[in-house]
What does this fold into?
Amino acid sequence: MSPAPPPPPKAPTASAERLQSLDAYRGLIMVTLSFGGFGLAATARNHLKAAPDSGFWSAVLGQFDHAEWVGGGFWDLIQPSFMFMVGVSMAYSYVTRQREGHSWARMFGHACWRAVVLIALGIFLTSNSARSTNWSFMNVLSQIGLAYPFLFLLWGRSPRVHATTAAGLLLGTWALYLAFSGPGIDPAKGAANLGVPAAWTQQHLAGVAPAWHKNANVGHAIDTHLLNALPRREPFVFNAGGYQTINFIPSLATMLFGLMCGELLRSGRAPTRKLTLLVLAGIGGIAGGLLWSSLGCPIIKRLWSPSWALVSTGWCCLILATLYGVIDIRRWRAWAFPLLVVGMNSIAVYCMEMTLKSWTAKNLQTHLGENIFKILGADVAPMVQSTMVGFVFWLVCWWMYRRKIFLRI
It folds into this structure.
């Protein structure tokens, strides 16, 4: 039997105008990504070679590079922001389809089709320049695709159902990792065959329970069976970054939290009340994640540990709250136009960033000179290069925006 469709979501009494803060948030993340973090991570490494004790450049590197294992900075919030915004968007998009007369079955079919396209696009982009198809589901688009139909099945349900389901997903993930717990990685020897050297282990896994060790956990065990069951030129042994396919399960909780926030913003509550609740949710998520971490569930983005899901969602709520307060409440919008241009064509700019970055940089050097990226000095060349390449992508999005060309899936 197919699941019973939920009752139609209550129509908001507030204005149904487009949530521009969400477009700006999407644009902020996509500008950060398409501009390569403005090359700040590579620039910081260049400066740290000359001044290893620089607190400033160490802080910059910590915010614009992925955490090696435990912890995280702004750069680690890019994928959670994607997942969170998918949930916020769903609160609006399927209500619109419903008002246009789409049946529940038709909308569910659309959700499943969208999931397939996202998974396929993720695999295609991951396989870019590879000799054969790289059957991997760790890319953010594939992760969204794996979770999307389940998120739709929760659309229109009550806040209690949403909260209970999210709690079940996170507690279930926590239990799954602990139930599989083995000896982990030996800190004295490491596990070179799994891409985990001894020095890395001693630096990044000290004090981390074996259940959460890189490439020695339940997610890795599942992937060694799942990914090797698919056609491959070479057997799957490990993921270099320690990412796992089953990350989509706790990621679904992140998307569900986004759906809850979207329903809040779509509701008829007073705007200031919505803002207050978003801020409280953000503070609560961060506090809850830190508390769970102190109880033995480390904050690890690469595994999407339950504590990371809470902490990252908390930050997503605070970012959205800030933009909502500035753009949709105070209506200070002109400054956000560069973000909106990219945010309304996020799929297009993401594909450009994944496939055309090196090609664009090469052509900039061809036409502007081999040393164009060193005009401010070799140390900041990565920043100049990333900014120029990102600006080219922004111009493409601006051209599409002016002609009302918006790629949708």
Observations:
- Confidence is low (pLDDT under 50) at residues 11-15.
- The two ends are 28 Å apart (CA to CA).
- Residues 20-34+66-355 form one domain.
- The longest helix spans residues 271-294.
